[in-house]
Structures are given as structure tokens and as C-alpha cells.
Amino acid sequence: MFNYAFTTKKFVEWATNLYSDVIRNNNNEKFTYDDTTNQLKVQSNNQCVGAWYNNGFTVHIVPCDANDSSQKWKIDLDNHRLRHLSSNNACLGTIPAEVGYPVYVTTCQESSMNQWINLCSNVQTHNYVLIQSRVFMKPLSEYDTGLYADDQKYNLNEIFDYDVNNKMFKAMSNGQIFGLFS
């Protein structure tokens, strides 16, 4: 099984397309990877993920064909990327904060959370939160060890992990804990 899990969202197949969605525990969000053919198969319809280039990549779910290079993928667990094998440096991505956002192919970038994937068995439970200012309703964002209220950017700087046991917030962008000092 395969999912991308930074914000506890998964890739989901719907009407032969891929989107990001919350976990619903159905077969549209379950995939198997065949490391012999390098194909990613959706459990709901036994079809495969393919990407074609035509002035940019288009991602679709299509009948599996082991000879079709557009259906060849490599799960790169060391870098948490799903790489397209027919292109030198192309990875699947989406906007993790957006439910229903289409999955796309883009240039692989080491620091991009839009491309981060993991196996279901490796996913840990976290309490990810977005903190907003009360007056201006702007998200709190960590930058260069400071905290700022700014327009939403949909990036890692706006995501915090709440540690229930220790009652602390940790910035996911740099792993630092909120602290007050004078």
C-alpha cells in the first residue's frame, strides 16, 4: 500500500484522475506497487497511474500496460518521492493543504512538501495544526526562528505539531518548539 502522509491526506483516484483527499479508508486511496514492472495500481479499479507529456505532464488512471513507459514509476523512500521513470527529474506532487487538489508531475525538489510520500506502514500519528491570528485570521508562520502572522502560503512554515503530553507546539519547518523569553 502507498500513501503520502505529511498532512494525513492520501492520493485518491476518482473518475480516472488523481487528487489529494482526507483519509476515507476506501479502495480509491489504496495503491499497490509492482517493483518488477514499476507500475502503481489503484485497488478500486485495478488500473495504473500514468503520466503523459504534452506541453507539460498530465496524470491519469488508465488500463495497465507493462510495456507503456508512461506508467513507469520509482518509489524513492530515501527522499520520500514518487519519481516518473520516463523523465529524468519528474515527481508526483500536489498541494497537501488542499483537499481535492489534482495530483500533477513537476520537477523533483528535495525540500518540497508537495512531493512528500511515505508507505502506510511508516506513517506516524501527529496532531498537525494551523494556527491563525484571532483578529486578522492570518496563519502563524515560522521563518528564520521567528513567528509571523502572514497571508497563507500553503507551505511547511505554517504547519505545527501539537504534543499533547508535553503541551507544546513544534514548528514542522525547523523542528523547534515555541518558547517565550525576555
TrEMBL record:
<dbReference type="Pfam" id="PF00652">
    <property type="entry name" value="Ricin_B_lectin"/>
</dbReference>
<feature type="domain" description="Ricin B lectin">
    <location>
        <begin position="25"/>
        <end position="115"/>
    </location>
</feature>
<dbReference type="InterPro" id="IPR035992">
    <property type="entry name" value="Ricin_B-like_lectins"/>
</dbReference>
<dbReference type="InterPro" id="IPR000772">
    <property type="entry name" value="Ricin_B_lectin"/>
</dbReference>
<protein>
    <recommendedName>
        <fullName>Ricin B lectin domain-containing protein</fullName>
    </recommendedName>
</protein>
